Amino acid sequence: MRYLFILIIAIPAADIGLLLFSGKAIGVWPTFLLIILTGVIGAYLAKREGLQTIRKAQAQLQNGQIPGEAVLDGICILAGGILLLLPGFITDISGFLMLFPPTRRVFKFLMINSLRKKIQRGNIKIIR
Q1: How many domains does the chain have?
Q2: Range of the domain at 46
Q3: The pTM is what?
Q4: pLDDT tens digits, residue range 91-103?
Q5: Which of 9, 42, 71, 93 is 20 to 30 A from 99, alpha carbon to alpha carbon?
Q6: Domain presence at residue 127
């Protein structure tokens, strides 16, 4: 529940505050153009990284491997692309971090640990 509060209220409020501060510091139009620019760059990067991930998953499947890491990459790329399309500097920074492969490893590590803990607690059951 606390994570939901942060996602729905705290992050957008901080983003709005930062946008207002930026509007006063550099002006409304430069702030507006910066928001548009990060959205366009984010869409391009998400498309490029997404296509690379799809190719990697297809290659793994052709070799008889399970594309587990490619799936995690895809989740990070999707989330990063969505965050970059949202207006705000905090969401843009988070989105860029999810799109770049070196920093994406941190998010994949966090997802794996979260899934592992849920499996150990019995919240997720794997049926064979």
Answers
A1: 1
A2: 2-121
A3: 0.83
A4: 999 999 999 999 9
A5: 9
A6: no
